[in-house]
Amino acid sequence: MKVLELKNVNKIYNSSEVKVHAVNDVTLDFVEAEFAAIVGPSGSGKTTLLNLIGGLDMPTSGEIIIGGTNLSKLKPSQLIDFRLNNIGFVFQSYNLIPVLTAKENVEFIMTLQKWPEKERDERTLELLRAVGLGDRINSRPTKLSGGQQQRVAVARALASKPKFILADEPTANLDSKAATTLLEIMEKLNHESKITFIFSTHDPRVVKMAHRVITLEDGIVISDDIRELPA
Amino acid sequence: MIWSISWKNVWRNKKRSLVVIVAVTLGIISGVLLVGIMEGWVKQRLNDAIYNEVSHIQIHNKEYIKNEEIDLTVRNLDEITRSIDSLNELSGWVKRTKIIAMANTPWANTGVTIYGVDAEKEKLVTEIYKEIVPNGGKYLENQSPGDILISDKTAELLKLKQYIVTESMIKGLRSQKVPETVLTKLEILKETRFRSPKDFREALRIEYSKKELDRYGLLIIDKALDYRIRNKVQITISDKEGTPIQGIFRVCGIYKTTNTGFDQATVFLNAGELANLYGGNDILTHEIAVLLNNIDDVDNVKEKLSRISVNNSVMTWKELAPDAAMMNDFMIMYYFIFIGIIMLALAFGIINTMLMAILERTKELGMLMAIGMNRKRIFKMIMLETIFLTIVGAVVGMVLGWAITEVLGKTGIHFTGWGEGFEAIGFAARVYPVITADFFVFITIMVIATAIISSIWPARKALKLNPVEALRTE
Fold this sequence. Notes:
Strand content of chain B: 15-25%
Number of strands of chain B: 15
Oligomer: heterodimer
Helix content of chain A: 25-40%
Shape of chain B: elongated
CATH superfamily of chain A: P-loop containing nucleotide triphosphate hydrolases
Largest sheet of chain A: 6 strands, mixed
Largest sheet of chain B: 10 strands, mixed
Distance between the termini of chain B: 26 Å
Distance between the termini of chain A: 12 Å
Order of helices and strands of chain A: EEEHEEHEHHHEHEHEE
Strand content of chain A: 25-35%
């Protein structure tokens, strides 16, 4: 089942002197439970593409359709609610709320979605256990290592039951061991929850584990290598 | 959870938040004290105006209001006397003779208004009998012929008030542990009469250092004060034909209210003796003063009295003491002005702090917007954070302000240097600050309003952030 469609998506930045074609006529489909990596050199348009897919930025032309909804047709306020209920985000620098504990960070997104307290608590504990942090639920981000913080961020991204998760260079700030642990957890969750994961990355470990690798160069998709179909 | 995040955000940068909290605390304490002092003064002025000067309601002949002539007495007096007792709202009422006169002593003279009163009944409506100064004799008595009650100010004008250093006074100071070095210097001034506190102070200033004066000056002046009780005062009035008539009275007591203007002009005699002086067959009634059980009944009682006092003028305290009435009515405006100025100053500090907080958290706000926190919730989070920051300081300020006001409300604040000036316009030199529950409700509303208004700018700044750009910031 298609969760995401990109049809002839272009993003052009017009500054006073130069015109930058950051994303050039990209057409892609993503189905449920994919574990896909978007790779390419710096400046190839990976992050811009991820921002467009996440509804954080609007394409200059083309259509982005998520679960049948065309993002261009949504008003800014509708777009925020749409992101809340359909897209999970994992950022390179974790971006947890520092004043909240691991548990509160995860349940925060469900609070925004107005989940009942009991269900919220159950799901939070379930997710934190799934990312291997069942014993650190009351720790604040400053008391967690980078790898642990990123695992909390993954749990948070999954909490809202999104259609897919966008992860922008999730292992870039992690050491090798932490990165491997994180990737294994993400792959396991992808397998169990059937939620699509889309990464932008430079990391060969991520590329190695990805079921599909999309290569970008100067905003153009130069290859789309599907190694393994989702189960 | 937004409430919890906002509260926790306040304490992210403790030092910066504490600076604002302390500023709000100090601002609120000053506001509470300032308003407490104002309220204390207004209450004192209102109380003194009603219980010493004008009562709640007064009845006069309409013409007497324009020309205070001896024959312009209250009309239909018998009818008023018969009806007035049936009014339940009254706490007491008295009839007075009121005549303008000249008071003389061998050393000075001054113009006064004589109140011819029934000394005992007068206690029902005025509290002058409670205002007799220490060593100032006693209140007027019905059974003491030839007595006159004058004020401290009139005594000063008639040179019946003096400052004199005596052996017994030095003895008194010694018993109060005043050092011998200070007492020795007083020997030089012994037995010299000073007719005003100013002259005495000047003499003390020559003998004593500033430190000694600050410490013992007031005590020495207080102990040296001596009134010439039982001294004769000649009173001159005009009869109905305008012929001057003189009478001699002896000072039985000295009173002092907080209103020098009233004190200076007002002396009290027994009404019967005043009648003997002007040679009338009856005691003339120029004024009826009425005191009520409840000040709120004043308009209602005025209406009733107006019906039974045809051709007379019935006036309430608001008309008789417009200064006190105006201050009372405008108190809420003073609240607005004082607290408004304080809050305006604090608002800039709060805005600055919140703008810094937003700047520091740009990336986090970008993340919140990205994951789906809508504008309304972001606005609410920043607004709550501002309210918490302000409220913490305000609550501490209100508690401390209330505690300080409670203490000062018992001890009073003495404005030593400005006492004479204050008393000239009817305010006591010692003020007892008062704070009402209403004021705390008012200040709470003002604080919340300030916090909400102060949060608008930082919140708008946060809402203008672009999530993509915000997430890129370091």
